[in-house]
Specification:
Uncharacterised_HI1736/YgjV, 202 residues, transmembrane, membrane, transmembrane helix, YgjV family protein, mainly alpha
Length: 202
């Protein structure tokens, strides 16, 4: 192997190492958890089954716990943790009094978290969004659940703006689009049933 050939190989390898270094830097924990959380959050808006929605939301919340931790948004991180408790408590089809008590306990816990980790409007918006999402998760009707989630997402967008979470804002935009589309589809289906009951019966 000639000297020129070896130099060419060394230059190529150094270039590839620089590229890999830049790639690893770009794929930071904030980026990875944000992208994955965005994917699961969007998926949750497109599902029709209540328990499937909660499962996808739980996956998204788990990822956003790490995402907000990296951003230093303590209130948002702890709200996501409490949201995971809520989803675990409301997931079973039959709700025992213990699960109901656990679910209800997350509300004063969220207010306490907001007070202890107070970061101004960011914490207030996070707590408000959490309470609205709490009302949504308590619903057994999927349409009502989505309506509460829409309002909670609008409030949460304020928190994500102040936290500087680009992925959180993208998740909010995709969530609003997904829930809006599913609500529109449900309305259109009800309209077809009302106008053409014979087709449904057939």
């Amino acid at each position: 192997m000639t000297v020129r050939r070896r130099r060419s190989i060394m230059v190529f390898l150094l270039h590839q190492l620089t590229f890999l270094s830049d790639l690893l830097q770009a794929l930071s924990l904030v980026t990875v958890t944000g992208l994955a959380g965005l994917a699961f959050g969007t998926l949750s808006t497109l599902l029709a089954d209540r328990r499937a929605i909660l499962s996808a939301q739980a996956a998204a919340s788990s990822l956003f716990v790490l995402h907000f931790l990296c951003l230093g948004a303590r209130t948002g991180m702890l709200m996501c943790l409490l949201g995971l408790v809520q989803m675990a408590a409301s997931y079973p089809r039959r709700r025992t009094w213990r699960l109901n008590a656990l679910f209800a306990a997350t509300v004063p816990a969220a207010l306490a978290v907001a007070a202890v980790t107070w970061q101004g409007p960011m914490s207030g918006l996070s707590a408000t969004g959490f309470i609205l999402a709490t009302l949504g998760r308590w619903q057994t009707d999927v349409a009502r659940m989505r309506l509460f989630f829409v309002v909670a997402t609008l409030v949460g967008a304020g928190h994500n703006t102040l936290a500087g979470s680009v992925f959180g804002l993208c998740s909010d935009a995709m969530g609003l689009s997904g829930h809006g589309w599913r609500l529109w589809r449900a309305h259109a289906d009800r309209r077809v049933v009302a106008e053409h009951p014979a087709l449904v019966a057939a």
